[in-house]
Description:
The chain is built from seven helices and no strands. The chain is elongated, with a radius of gyration of 26 Å. It has helices at residues 34-53, 65-86, 89-112, 125-147, 152-174, 182-211, 223-227. Helix 1 (34-53) runs parallel beside helix 3 (89-112) and helix 4 (125-147) packs antiparallel against helix 5.
Amino acid sequence: xxxxxxxxxxxxxxxxxxxxxxxxxxxxxxxxxxxxxxxxxxxxxxxxxxxxxxxxxxxxxxxxxxxxxxxxxxxxxxxxxxxxxxxxxxxxxxxxxxxxxxxxxxxxxxxxxxxxxxxxxxxxxxxxxxxxxxxxxxxxxxxxxxxxxxxxxxxxxxxxxxxxxxxxxxxxxxxxxxxxxxxxxxxxxxxxxxxxxxxxxxxxxxxxxxxxxxxxxxxxxxxxxxxx
Length: 228
């Protein structure tokens, strides 16, 4: 192999330098998934709460299951995964968990509560539902603590949701048929308030991002958020 094409730097010449570390290609920023997750939560909560208040007959509760599976469940779970990608621990835990809540509600209402095996303990099924709601009340209560470092809009959602779960939990333990309990109806009205708060937070997130400025206030509470 001939080396006649190799150029040796002469005096006065400068050898070209090759960067040792390749420059990574620019990556697109991940859009904020919170408005999507909040919208999914709001709509599904609203639909179920209308039934819990007694505005619609309790027999119509299964009509909520489609929303619970696809929007409240699947969409929120996706939002939670995107929050992990963005490094937002609070959003990731909240959306992933409440996505799982709606998926588990769909599964519970579709397959478990109607299972023939429960017929022999039908009088105690409401206690199991109460225990299920108690677990979610506890989870929501401690997530409420973290929400006070996010924004006033987010904190309002979590405070109202905690009260909703508590009322529904009491209603489930208090009556063999929870839908007949006044506590369940109270939980329904609190759920409607929760849905409105979540929709407000979602609306604010979409609007402020689109306009690139604060159009709808959310009252940020963290020092970093207040500085922006």
